[in-house]
């Protein structure tokens, strides 16, 4: 069979041949199977094609039976909040082309990728800030994937502290990203601290006593210019420079007028608005598309409002883009802008467009504008912004304006002295035309102007860096419980002057709000917490914000917010003002929700605010916005493939069209029934009789016997009836709490055998060593044996006492109030104790210590200490290979003398922190996969 050719693959996907450098890099990769140390290419060179090249390499190796030479997971990370993620769009194009291949080459590529063991040739994922029980990107470690994300999200996961991720899931993300992964760091010169941290991670991985030889450690490839010397770079050569496509992009003139404005915010906004409108009129285009890029979210909103007030809607469309927005809102805005100014769009729209944006479109945005107005910034940031102007070099008549204030006397909070130095340099090299200094920002021109220069003073300076030491790694690898001293992950990713981790904010419409508008008096906490336990926050409805801005907003000082859209920027100012409001939110603390004021909130917290607080519109964070925020929880659950859930409150009745008189009547009737001790099912039946005419197609599932919970307020009155679809969906499955045991009744014997089968199959697909295949199979066979404990069996049977009579259960039927039951020692501890009593069950494996550890940590606990719970012990019996084996006693693994912590450190040294996490992940994901199949087959 003839070898696969990258040129054929690329042409079949995109309809045109690759650029010379793209074909050259692909040929080099399939020959040497090694990536360059640095891919140093200017903007608009087509760097996102590295995704195509990496995927081709993976398929090429898989077809030759050398899958281990390439990575299953291809990750592209950028040190920006990605608003228009062209890499994600490109990945999706690859996925669709391979799902239904149209040519012989694509068919071969698809078959080769599918042979790696995934359910599809390729899956794509935008890795966002996660939430408890959200594991979409990591469900199958054998699945070829392209993942796009930010440095914060990828870096924090690699360091066992995934932002917004449940601590019990930390090791899964770290283990998978730490192995069998190619990490492409785009605009790497912005990410020097992150690159140094990655070097330290790789060095530690190589120090393991028994490394996982069949899966390679993470491979890191910086893209674009870098602050670091050394290594072998990959650059454009003479053939590339002679290429017509690249020559057009490099030579397209981009004349930029320098316009000076005062440092006052109002004056700056006025000048920006004037220049945007002036440029719109001057451009030689029937319907020009202009970007106005500014350095602050506040400036962007003020400018958008100023242009909106001029009532120019009959002349052009106006769009606001900021990175500080919820993912579902972001997707809507992105879709609209890409449909108008994406590089592949043949826009027949006769209306012009002005997009007001922050730094969020500097990087990773494959947009093509004819005009650009930008605030002055450091030179490296300006070069990125001009990469969105006449990006393909086809227009040839682009114009731009750079607005500055003479550099200012003080360092800029974002760009430091570089902004002042850049403005001074631009003024010195600009040619005087019509009374203004004009600088050509074409790629060729800037290269010529900066040739031989030391650009250190003009570019953004990296902050002081914190080195990742072995002590840091030992602390970070402890995920449950986390140690008292926890290393500063933000500093490891962005340097010592970076800001604190963001706070994750969610808005919900069903929370009880006091008459004065402040959430909850203390007595309402239980009702609010119950609602969030039943319907936990998800990443798609989260808005990540700096701590100082969240505090200022909650305290009624919206004018003190000073957001940028750059990751890891230090907080601009301290908050010293007096509170004009005192509004409470709900804050997740450990395993419970607590009431918190602005001053109680800490970096990295997830908080939930009532929709009535305002603070967020369809564009993103809007501290002055006072209308109710749209609750996105239902849409988020649908996209995440979770079962439907609805909190039926008086406010919800209003939303579906029930008038105020009917609402009062219905709620009074329900309250009366509740007072008469009516069951939740009876209450729901009464409600459905009253609102049947308001039930839309989307709510028809309410007629199919949903699972019901009743939430009362502090006075014991009805606050909400929470209805959950009884059908379990893939996104509902998790292993982080007891709710994962409620799907459909499954016997303990069947489930243990199923997980063992899945673990064995998955380990073989990943080409793990034969001894690890045995370890994982054995761990799967006994992982849930501790559920035979009588108290656990009683809880599992509570939803369906008649299920599988005479058999021990591993899973019970879904019922009301799941996830809120905690008692005695956990079943993992009982499983370990059972095997320690019968060591002969582990004779066939090379490392019994590893099997015990994998079983004990298969729900994310026990790293490095097991939960210490009071338990007098229990007695039960389990049938194993035709023998009935009794157990009596208490595990006591939480005591310091139990030796569990010593086992954790032994195995960390033996396999390395990321290696042991990877093995844990394989077992845990086999468990999830088995549970999903059980739920699906039993339902059918």
How many domains? The number is 5
Q: Using the CA coordinates, give the radius of gyration.
A: 29 Å
Fraction of residues in helix: 25-40%
What is the fold-level CATH name, i.e. the topology of the largest domain? Rossmann fold
Strand order of the largest sheet: 10-11-9-12-13-8-15-14
Structural class: alpha/beta
InterPro entries: Cas3-like_dom, CRISPR-assoc_Cas3_HD, CRISPR-assoc_Cas3_HD_sf, HD_domain, Helicase_Cas3_CRISPR-ass_Anaes, P-loop_NTPase
Protein name: Type I-U CRISPR-associated helicase/endonuclease Cas3
Family: In the N-terminal section; belongs to the CRISPR-associated nuclease Cas3-HD family.
Keywords: Antiviral defense, ATP-binding, Helicase, Hydrolase, Metal-binding, Nucleotide-binding
Give an account of the 3D structure.
This is Type I-U CRISPR-associated helicase/endonuclease Cas3. There is one protein chain. With 940 residues, the protein is an alpha/beta fold. The chain folds into five domains: 6-244, P-loop containing nucleotide triphosphate hydrolases (Rossmann fold, 3-Layer(aba) Sandwich), CATH 3.40.50; 252-457, Rossmann fold; 503-632, no CATH class; 645-724, no CATH class; 748-789 and 818-939, no CATH class. Helix content is 37%, strand content 15%. α3 packs across α5 and α28 packs antiparallel against α29. The longest helix is centred in the last third of the chain and has 27 residues, at 913-939. It is globular. The model is unreliable at 572-576 (pLDDT under 50).
């Amino acid at each position: 069979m003839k070898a696969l050719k990258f040129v054929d693959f690329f042409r079949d996907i995109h309809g045109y041949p690759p650029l010379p450098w793209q074909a050259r890099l692909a040929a080099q990769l399939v020959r040497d199977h090694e990536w360059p140390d640095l891919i140093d290419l200017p903007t608009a060179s087509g760097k996102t094609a590295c995704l195509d090249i990496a995927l081709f390499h993976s398929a090429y190796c898989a077809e030759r039976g050398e899958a281990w030479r390439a990575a299953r997971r291809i990750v592209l990370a950028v040190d920006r909040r990605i608003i228009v993620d062209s890499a994600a769009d490109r990945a999706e194009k690859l996925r669709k082309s391979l799902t239904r291949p149209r040519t012989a080459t694509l068919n071969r590529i698809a078959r080769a990728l599918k042979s790696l063991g995934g359910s599809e040739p390729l899956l794509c994922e935008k890795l966002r800030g996660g939430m408890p029980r959200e594991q979409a990107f990591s469900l199958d470690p054998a699945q070829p994937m392209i993942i796009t994300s930010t440095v914060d999200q990828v870096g924090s996961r690699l360091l066992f502290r995934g932002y917004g991720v449940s601590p019990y899931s930390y090791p899964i993300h770290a283990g998978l990203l730490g192995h069998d992964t190619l990490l492409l760091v785009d605009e790497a010169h912005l990410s020097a601290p992150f690159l140094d941290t990655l070097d330290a991670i790789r060095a530690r991985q190589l120090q393991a006593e028994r490394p996982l030889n069949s899966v390679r450690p993470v491979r890191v490839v910086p893209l674009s210019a870098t602050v670091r010397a050394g290594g072998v770079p990959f650059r454009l050569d003479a053939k590339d420079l002679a290429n017509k496509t690249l020559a057009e992009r490099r030579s397209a003139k981009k004349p930029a007028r320098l316009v000076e404005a005062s440092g006052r915010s109002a004056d700056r906004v006025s000048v920006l608005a004037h220049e945007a409108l002036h440029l719109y009129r001057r451009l030689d285009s029937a319907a020009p598309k202009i970007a106005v890029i500014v350095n602050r979210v506040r400036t962007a909103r003020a400018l958008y409002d100023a242009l909106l007030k001029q009532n120019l809607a009959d002349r052009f469309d106006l769009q606001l883009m900021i990175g500080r927005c919820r993912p579902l809102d972001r997707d809507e805005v992105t879709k609209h802008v890409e449909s108008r100014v994406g590089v592949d769009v043949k826009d027949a729209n006769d209306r012009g467009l002005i997009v007001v944006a922050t730094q969020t479109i500097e990087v990773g945005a494959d947009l093509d504008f004819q005009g650009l107005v930008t605030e002055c910034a450091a030179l490296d940031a300006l070069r990125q912004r001009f990469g969105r102007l006449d990006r393909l070099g086809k227009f040839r008549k682009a114009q731009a304006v750079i607005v500055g204030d003479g550099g200012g006397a003080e360092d800029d909070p974002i760009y430091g002295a570089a902004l002042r130095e850049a403005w001074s340099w631009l003024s010195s090299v600009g040619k005087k035309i019509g009374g203004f200094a004009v600088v050509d920002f074409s790629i060729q021109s800037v290269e010529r102007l900066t040739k031989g220069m030391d650009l250190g003073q003009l570019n953004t300076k990296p902050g002081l860096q914190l080195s990742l030491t072995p002590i840091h790694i030992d602390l970070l690898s402890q995920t449950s419980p986390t140690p008292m001293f926890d290393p500063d992950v933000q500093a490891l990713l962005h340097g010592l002057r970076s800001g604190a981790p963001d706070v994750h904010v969610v808005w919900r419409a069903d929370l009880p709000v006091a008459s004065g508008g402040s959430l909850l008096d203390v007595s309402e906490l239980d009702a609010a917490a119950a609602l969030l336990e039943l319907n936990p926050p998800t990443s798609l409805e989260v808005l990540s914000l700096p701590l100082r801005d969240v505090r200022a907003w909650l305290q009624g000082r919206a004018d003190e917010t000073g957001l940028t859209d750059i990751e890891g920027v230090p907080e601009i100012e301290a908050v010293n003002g007096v509170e004009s409001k005192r509004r409470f939110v709900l804050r997740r603390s450990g395993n419970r929700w607590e009431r918190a004021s602005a001053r109680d909130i800490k970096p990295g917290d997830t908080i939930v605010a009532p929709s009535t607080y305002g603070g967020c519109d369809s564009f993103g964070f809007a501290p002055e916005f006072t209308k109710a925020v749209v609750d996105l929880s239902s849409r988020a659950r649908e996209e995440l493939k979770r079962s439907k859930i609805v909190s039926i409150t008086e406010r919800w009745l209003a939303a579906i069209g029930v008038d105020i008189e009917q609402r009062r009547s219905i709620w009074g009737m329900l309250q009366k029934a509740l007072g008469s001790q009516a069951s939740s099912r009876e209450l729901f039946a009464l409600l459905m009789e009253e609102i049947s005419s308001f039930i839309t197609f989307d709510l028809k599932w309410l007629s199919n016997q949903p699972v019901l919970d009743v939430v009362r307020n502090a006075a014991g009155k009805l606050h909400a009836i929470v209805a959950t679809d009884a059908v379990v969906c893939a996104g509902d499955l998790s292993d982080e709490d007891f709710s994962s045991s409620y799907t459909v009744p499954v016997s303990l014997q069947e489930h243990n055998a199923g997980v063992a089968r899945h673990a064995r199959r998955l380990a073989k697909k990943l080409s793990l060593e034969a001894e690890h295949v045995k370890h994982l199979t054995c761990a799967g066979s006994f992982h849930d044996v501790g559920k035979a404990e009588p108290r656990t069996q009683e809880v599992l049977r509570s939803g369906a006492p008649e299920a599988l009579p005479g058999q021990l259960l591993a899973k019970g039927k879904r019922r009301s109030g799941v996830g809120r039951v905690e008692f005695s020692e956990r079943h993992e501890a009982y499983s370990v104790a059972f095997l320690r009593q019968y060591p002969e069950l582990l004779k066939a494996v090379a490392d019994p210590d590893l099997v015990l550890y994998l079983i004990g940590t298969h729900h994310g606990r026990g790293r490095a200490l097991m939960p210490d719970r009071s338990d007098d012990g229990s007695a039960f019996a389990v049938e194993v290979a035709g023998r009935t084996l009794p157990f009596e006693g208490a595990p006591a693994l939480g005591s310091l003398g139990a030796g569990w912590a010593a086992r954790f450190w032994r195995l960390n040294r033996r396999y390395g922190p990321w290696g042991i996490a990877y093995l844990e992940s394989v077992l845990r994901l086999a468990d999830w996969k088995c549970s999903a199949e059980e739920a699906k087959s039993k339902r059918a």
